[in-house]
């Protein structure tokens, strides 16, 4: 037995030392000044601190900090301070050592970063919404002090995602959902495109394993054809670049499985109908830094001689970089096979920033370490916006997270001021957004705008290149309707702040009404009571409930008293949702018995999956946000009443729940036997002809023996569109029907409405 222990310890030691040596080799090959001694000291300290501890996967715990440091070094390109902080990032959280100990041994800068990482460790979110929002605020505040905190946190999350197999399924959904909702957008905003793509793909793989595997298979099956298309398309380009005398590299860029799946969901298309899976990247070495932009356009001019270019798809990120520093010229060309192919033209410097992110160039003065002291103004501006939101945070965690989320994933357009200055704004923004982006006073008193010298309303959506002049009036006041006119986080947070200030009196009045009513009925007022009544009235926030009371929109009565005292009537709890998942009545229902919703007991094992069966399906809630049916990838969520909601894993509401209430997420699986019926809608489109509808209904009703509940068709200029509402057992029924309908002539588009 002792021999076995010794052999295992020796194997562990070799594993650890090999991983650390790989880290040192990566660091020695980087452009940084070498601080091997400091990194070795941090490694030995962390190794000793985590001695004897193992991860769920069984490997020694120290392998995780080494892996995070490896990502920080080789994939993000940071130096010794960040590598040391990555090696030490779990020491304060998991051992007896303090931040002061780290400061004494490694200096105040490394200690500050470790402290920042410790404050936000253990996953952003716990059970309470307020705690989640506070923790995320800490992350963003620390990030705005030292950007390396968030970069190391992203590296930490990337390694956790790479090793997520060892976690139970409910934890996988929580961590994957949190990653997709917050960490991938953060990586995107900081220009870490490679890491952002991997985070998205890993989240997709754990949440939708079958869909992920299917897309991977199809990518592998079409690889040879794709290579042939790439070679045919790039052969003339290679000759052209040689003639121009440029040192260059041409790379094939394939759309990621997550991007393909997202497009399939959003556009209701199949894998075979996605034509932009392949893109081409030209990376060249410019003759000088000054000639970089000119040479990008020279290549574009030559390309447009070889292939026809798409006039609406030229994206000039060279002269107008994205706010995360991304630069490239994107053009779309028509191949000889008749497909549009995007070509990205970049210098090698632009490519490095695109791969590692602008934040990687935020090097700090540290003795003689390699530095770039300039802090990029665009990223600073973004961090300033984040600080503004933090200075006036939303009282509710979900609102706060949504405000930050709005600010993370937006594409960008360029707007001109009346004086010709360029402002970067998110795509889809309105004149009111632009007003708030310039100044709060301008936004709060905005009555309209002149866009390209024409008068437009507050809600007017701006296009890239618009020149905008904001019109104001002192008599104008912010109204709740303005939320319908804005898309940016800054505008929403400012409107929230102004309305909250205006609404304090109404809220106080509502609180007083509730307090008096509770005292009158012998109930002691508390926040828990307010939250219970808020949920009872289908509201998200108790402030919203107070406001409704103050405005006399809600009048408290007997039903509210029944809710609080437990004398609940037999009216349907969650029954409003049940109508969206109609199924054949069970024998119990036919006999007039009421099916009770399942209530989660105190000692419920949340790590085990729940199984949805023909017999117990009526014990779960099916919200109307995503209409899951058997065969869909689903999860369970324990709501405020300890009842279980079933959501699709890709449902937007579920994504917010995974991010904010991760401990309430359950793994849910279907165990149905085609006895119950569910609603599904199929959308059709194609060339109209006599007898087509008859063929379609014949396929569904006669060949497939499926009931059609509703049929809607419209025809215009020989082209038709239609929807068919069906009664089916599960997702496989829908797939079989769609496959059969594809055999019908003149049907060009067939998809399920999700």
Descriptive account of the structure:
The protein is 48% helix and 15% strand. With 754 residues, it is α+β, with helices and mostly antiparallel strands. Among the domains are: 151 residues, Hypothetical protein af1432 (Orthogonal Bundle); 146 residues, Beta Polymerase, domain 2; 97 residues, no CATH class; 76 residues, ACT domain (Alpha-Beta Plaits, 2-Layer Sandwich), CATH 3.30.70. Helix 1 packs parallel to helix 3, helix 6 runs antiparallel to helix 7 and helix 8 packs antiparallel against helix 17. It is globular and about 80 Å long.
List the helices and strands and how they pair.
Elements: H1 2-28, H2 36-49, H3 63-75, H4 80-87, H5 91-94, H6 99-106, H7 108-119, H8 129-145, H9 148-162, H10 169-189, H11 193-207, H12 209-221, H13 223-243, E1 247-254, H14 257-267, E2 278-285, H15 292-306, E3 315-316, E4 329-334, E5 340-347, H16 348-356, H17 377-391, H18 397-406, E6 412-416, E7 422-426, H19 431-438, H20 440-444, E8 446-451, E9 454-456, E10 468-472, H21 489-520, H22 527-536, H23 542-550, H24 558-565, H25 575-578, H26 587-590, E11 610-613, E12 634-638, E13 644-648, H27 652-660, E14 665-671, E15 678-687, H28 692-703, E16 707-716, E17 719-728, H29 731-741, E18 747-753
Parallel strand pairs: 2-5, 11-14
Antiparallel strand pairs: 1-2, 3-4, 4-5, 6-7, 8-9, 8-10, 12-13, 12-14, 15-17, 15-18, 16-17
């Amino acid at each position: 037995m002792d021999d076995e222990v010794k052999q295992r310890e020796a194997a562990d030691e070799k594993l650890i030392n090999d991983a650390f040596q790989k880290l040192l080799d990566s660091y020695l090959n980087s452009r940084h000044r070498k601080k091997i001694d400091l990194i070795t000291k941090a490694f030995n300290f962390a190794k000793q601190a985590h001695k004897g501890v193992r991860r769920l996967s069984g490997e020694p715990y120290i392998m995780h900090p080494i892996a995070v440091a490896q990502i920080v070094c080789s994939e993000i390109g940071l130096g010794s301070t960040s590598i040391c902080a990555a090696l030490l990032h779990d020491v304060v959280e998991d051992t007896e050592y303090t931040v002061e100990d780290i400061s004494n041994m490694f200096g105040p800068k490394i200690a500050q970063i470790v402290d920042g990482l410790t404050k936000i460790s253990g996953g952003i979110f716990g059970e309470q919404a307020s705690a989640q929002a506070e923790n995320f605020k800490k992350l963003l505040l620390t990030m705005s002090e030292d950007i390396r905190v968030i970069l190391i946190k992203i590296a930490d999350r990337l390694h956790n995602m790479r090793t997520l197999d060892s976690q139970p399924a409910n934890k996988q959904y929580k961590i994957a959902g949190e990653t997709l909702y917050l960490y991938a957008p953060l990586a995107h905003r900081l220009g870490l495109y490679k890491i952002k793509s991997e985070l998205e793909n890993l989240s997709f793989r754990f949440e939708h394993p079958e869909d992920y595997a299917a897309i991977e298979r199809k990518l592998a099956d079409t690889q040879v054809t794709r290579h042939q298309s790439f070679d045919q398309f790039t052969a003339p380009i290679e000759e052209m670049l040689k003639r121009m005398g440029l040192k260059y590299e041409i790379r094939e860029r394939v759309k990621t499985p997550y991007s393909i799946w997202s497009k399939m969901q959003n556009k209701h298309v199949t894998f075979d109908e996605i034509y932009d899976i392949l893109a081409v990247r030209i990376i060249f070495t410019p003759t000088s830094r000054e000639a970089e932009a000119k040479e990008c356009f020279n290549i574009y001019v030559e390309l447009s001689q070889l292939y026809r270019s798409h006039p609406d798809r030229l994206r000039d990120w060279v002269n107008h970089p994205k706010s995360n520093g991304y630069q490239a010229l994107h053009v779309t060309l028509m191949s000889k096979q008749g497909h549009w192919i995007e070509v990205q033209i970049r210098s090698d410097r632009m490519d490095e920033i695109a791969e590692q992110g602008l934040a990687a160039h935020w090097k700090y003065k540290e003795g003689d370490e390699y530095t770039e002291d300039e802090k990029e103004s665009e990223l600073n501006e973004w961090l300033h916006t984040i600080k503004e939101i933090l200075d006036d945070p939303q009282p509710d965690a979900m609102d706060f997270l949504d405000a930050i989320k709005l600010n993370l994933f937006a594409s960008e357009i360029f707007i001109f001021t009346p004086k010709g200055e360029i402002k970067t704004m998110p795509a889809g923004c309105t004149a009111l957004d632009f007003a708030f982006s310039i100044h709060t006073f301008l936004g709060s008193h905005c009555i309209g705008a002149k866009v390209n010298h024409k008068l437009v309303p507050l809600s007017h959506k701006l296009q890239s290149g618009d020149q905008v002049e904001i019109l104001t009036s002192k008599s104008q006041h912010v109204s709740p309707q303005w939320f319908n006119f804005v898309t940016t986080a800054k505008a929403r947070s400012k409107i929230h702040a102004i309305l909250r200030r205006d609404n304090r009196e109404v809220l106080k009045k509502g609180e007083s009404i509730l307090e008096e009513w509770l005292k009158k009925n012998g109930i002691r007022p508390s926040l828990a009571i307010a939250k219970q009544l808020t949920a009872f009235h289908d509201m998200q926030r108790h402030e919203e409930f107070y406001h409704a009371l103050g405005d006399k929109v809600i009048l408290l009565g007997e039903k509210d008293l029944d809710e609080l005292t437990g004398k609940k009537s037999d009216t349907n709890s969650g029954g409003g949702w049940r109508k969206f998942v109609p199924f054949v009545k069970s024998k119990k229902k036919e006999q007039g018995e009421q099916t009770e919703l399942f209530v989660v007991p105190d000692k419920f094992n949340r790590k085990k999956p729940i199984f949805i069966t023909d017999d117990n399906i009526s014990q779960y809630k099916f919200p109307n946000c995503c209409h899951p049916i058997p065969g869909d990838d689903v999860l369970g969520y324990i709501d405020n009443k300890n009842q279980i909601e079933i959501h699709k894993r890709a449902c937007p509401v579920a994504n917010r729940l995974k991010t904010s209430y991760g401990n309430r997420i359950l793994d849910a699986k279907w165990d149905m036997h085609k006895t119950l019926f569910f609603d599904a809608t199929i959308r059709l489109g194609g060339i109209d002809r006599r007898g087509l509808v008859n063929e379609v209904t014949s396929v569904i009703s006669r060949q497939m023996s499926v009931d059609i509940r509703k049929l809607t068709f419209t025809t215009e200029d020989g082209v038709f569109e239609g929807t068919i509402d069906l009664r089916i057992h599960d997702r496989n029924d829908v797939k079989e029907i769609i496959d059969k309908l594809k055999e019908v002539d003149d049907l060009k588009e067939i998809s399920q409405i999700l």
